[in-house]
Design a protein that fits this description.
Layout: E1 7-13, H1 18-30, H2 32-35, E2 37-44, H3 54-60, E3 65-67, H4 76-88, E4 94-97, H5 106-112, E5 116-120, H6 132-139, E6 143-150, E7 160-167, H7 178-202, E8 204-207, E9 210-213
Parallel strand pairs: 1-2, 1-4, 2-3, 4-5
Antiparallel strand pairs: 5-6, 6-7, 8-9
Helix pairs in contact: 1-7, 4-5
Organism: Streptomyces synnematoformans
Domain Formyl transferase N-terminal: 8-196
EC number: 2.1.2.2
């Protein structure tokens, strides 16, 4: 797949939006043409008042935003349909799940499958799910990290695009993993910016779960 130049990004958030900010900073520093992509809208599954501060970052950047809350719909399928339509309205080349804490459904995947980029705070396929840092510490690993991958119908099971390693320190077991998670997030932000830019500039294809850059 070769996105438009620059590629149009819709970013989905649930929390503070630090990954979103990293993307916005990269575009601002390099220019959309040189970076290869621009953020055209930001969506969330909750309001800024309920914790999705990433929406405020988007508003400060002059970007349109939308909110699709699961409780506002009778079924999860209806929510998924609304999220799909709201996202599609901005005609994205890539959708970036930047700390978006909801699992998208069949309709969203049918519309954007192969174009949804997600980050995860572990070296997949190890420690998928919502408690990756805690699970890695409990397992006693000496090295963990983060993964940027495409989203499929599973939980953190999509094709891996890139990974970054982070050493586990002895003191990480004493603070519940908070410092470790912060070190992982720092690597995650840098890796996400690199990956999204490269996907946008070079194009890509997926063959037997292997992501190949360039056409």
């Amino acid at each position: 797949m070769v996105p438009h130049a620059p590629a149009r990004l819709v970013v989905l958030v649930s929390g503070s939006g630090t990954n979103l900010q990293a993307l916005l900073d990269a575009v601002a520093a390099q220019g959309a043409g040189a970076y290869g992509a621009e953020v055209v809208a930001v969506g969330a599954d909750r309001t800024a008042e309920a914790g999705a501060a990433g929406l405020l970052r988007a508003e400060r950047a002059g970007l349109p935003t939308f909110v699709c809350r699961v409780p506002d719909f009778a079924t999860r399928a209806e929510w998924d349909r609304a999220l799909t339509e709201a996202t599609a309205a901005y005609e994205p080349d890539l959708v970036v799940s930047a700390g978006f804490m909801k699992i998208v459904g069949a309709e969203f995947l049918a519309r954007f499958g192969g174009r949804i980029v997600n980050t995860h705070p572990a070296l997949l396929p190890s420690f998928p799910g919502a408690h990756a840092v805690r699970d890695a510490l409990a397992h006693g690993v000496k090295v963990t990290g983060c993964t940027v991958h495409f989203v499929d119908e599973g939980v953190d099971t999509g094709p891996i695009i890139a990974q970054g390693a982070v050493e586990v320190r002895e003191e990480d077991h004493r603070d519940g993993g908070e410092a470790l998670h912060e070190r992982i997030k720092a690597v995650e932000r840098r890796l996400l910016v690199e990956v999204v830019g490269r996907l946008a500039r070079d194009g890509y294809r997926v063959e037997d779960r292997k992501v190949r850059f360039g056409e």
